[in-house]
Amino acid sequence: MDILITLIGAGALGKALSYSLTQVTGYDVRLHARSGFIQEPFDVLDHGVSKTVQVKGDASGDSPIYIFTTKAYDLSSALEEWLPRIPTTARIVLLSNGYIEPLLFPLRKKFPNHRLTKGVVTRGARFLPTGQLQLSDQGHISWGDEQGARDFETQIFAQRAELKWDAGSCEARKDKWYCNTVLNTLCGAYRLVKNGLALEHPEFEALSKEVFALSGELWPERSTSFTRERLHTLAKNLINATSGNENSMAVDVRLGRRTEIDVLSGVAKTCANYELKFPLLMKMHKQIESSKI
Q1: Which of 19, 36, 59, 272 is most buried by a 10 A CB count?
Q2: Above 70 in pLDDT, residue 250?
Q3: Is residue 224 scored above 80 in pLDDT?
């Protein structure tokens, strides 16, 4: 009998991960959208080859693993809905880009017996005008903790190179939050269509310094490797590697869609005197907020 994997969140990330997992022998995948479990197949473009993905829309029962791939602003409500019905023995993986640990404190208190495992996504995916999901051939989807991978996860990672176990995912998420906050805040505020334009912007350096200062308030116990020089290099490398990519925040702003600024630049509001400490970040935050419909 195949092992059932449950994904919650049927956007680009959820569908990209569903595709990878359906390629693993001995596993069934069900994908939950706002309207319920997806029944219909969908198409992906992987290394230029078009493939049709069929998930198990009619599958029932518990899974040994539940993976949350919602937008960061939907993560708390999704966890509130799902945790009461997830067995405490199941692996719960959080892959939503942008969220940070303080946002989970209330849920950890409410559901103390559920262990939440962090994950990081560096593999891109975007919907084409045709409706196909185009997958990047670079990057990974990883998760992990100090307790180690379970047997069923080891089989997954052995079969799919783009999926990885990373016991350091918690620290890696802080790196990703820094990079996302610098890049997406700048691109969103100034409608910079391509990621590469961020490095050319005159406020890039000043914004980077403010976001690093904010990270120091969010994670005062951070490790010695969490230095501005290292993070600055990571951000620049990310931007250079994706310089030709459309910036997702800028697209959301242009189309009047909801953005993820509340879990990026918006977390500065949890700090005392945030407008004095982070004036540039707050200026850009307000510019993005003003674009909301």
Answers
A1: 19
A2: yes
A3: no
Alpha-carbon distance of 85 to 279, in angstroms, equals: 43
The CA distance from 21 to 25, in Å, is 9
Q: Work out the burial of residue 178: count CB atoms within 10 Å of its CB; fewer than 13 is exposed, 13-18 middle, 19 or more buried.
A: buried
Instruction: Give the closest residue to 249 by CA, choosing from 241, 240, 258.
Output: 258
Name 51's bridge partners: 44
Query: What's the pLDDT at 57?
Result: 84
Owner of token pair 């904010």: 214
Q: Which residues contact 225 (CB under 8 A, 6 or more apart)?
A: 171
Tokens (6 digits) for 12: 């680009």
Strands (E), 155-260: 163-165
CB 196 within 8 A of CB 243: yes
Residue from 181, 169, 174, 173 nearest 267 by CA:
181
Residues in a beta bridge with 116: 92
Say what the pLDDT of residue 291 is.
77
Confidence of residue 293 (pLDDT cuts 50, 70, 90): very low
103: how many CB neighbours lie within 10 A of its CB? 18
The secondary structure of 141-164 as a DSSP string is: EEE--TT---HHHHHHHHH-TTEE
199-204 contacts, C-beta under 8 A, 24 or more apart: 199/236, 199/239, 199/240, 199/243, 203/280
Distance, CA of 264 to CA of 99 (rounded, Å) = 8
Could you give the domains of the chain? 3-167 (3.40.50.720), 171-289 (1.10.1040.10)
Which residues, at least 6 apart from 166, have a Cβ–Cβ distance to it below 8 Å?
120, 142, 143, 144, 172
**What does the block give as tokens for 65?**
């693993």
Instruction: Please tell me the distance from the alpha carbon of residue 125 to that of residue 72, in angstroms, as a whole number.
Output: 17
